[in-house]
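Journal club side-thread
Mid-discussion, someone asked how the predicted structure for our own chain would compare to the paper's figures. Pasting it here so we can look after the session.
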Amino acid sequence: MAVVVVSGTGTEIGKTVVTAALAAVARTQGRTVAVLKPAQTGLAPGEPGDAHEVARLAGDGVAAVELARFPEPLAPATAARRAGLPPVRPHDVATAAATLAAEYDLVLVEGAGGLLVRFDDEGATLADAARLLGAPVLVVTPAALGTLNSTALTAEALRARGIEMLGVVVGSWPSAPGLAERCNLTDLPEAAGGAPLLGAVPEGAGALAPAEFRTRATTWLAPPLGGTWRP
């Protein structure tokens, strides 16, 4: 896979850290990696964004690319409109990712929030960019109660658009999982329409020192993603 789209079932669920783990594992395999953030919201110019955090954690050989930045922490379409700036379009994302794929072994396209968050006022989404690219989507989901519903809805949206769902990764696995979390680990593949469970990144992983993060990343992802994790 030259391009993988990383989407969440919501926001603040560990999508950036999962993207960093994917990049770190690819680097251990000697692959060059670029992470593309189509729309970064909620940050001022000069502040490090999600793509830069991925590069920081994953290390040398990872390029960080942003297409647009909007200062208010809102959905990309709303943030662009309020800032008086042009929105990101799906073809912009597809063109940038394809250009990067000609130079890097792996391109990770990290979305903003969920799959169907609007990029522009015409209703374009990350799903439209994935369809233009013909790229699979890796879905990051939380561990707690409610994750089965949001995962099932995301899987249904992907199927309706003819987009491959690569699998599911739990973005923040608790150190002391309760009954709901343990059961969800078993039930997520069914909720995902048969897509496999491909990893669980422990909560707090993003706070690790980069060197330790890179060392441990392979233990969080399943063999199809280059790691050793098994449910």
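Post-session note: The beta strands are 3-8, 33-41, 62-70, 106-114, 137-141, 165-173, 197-202.
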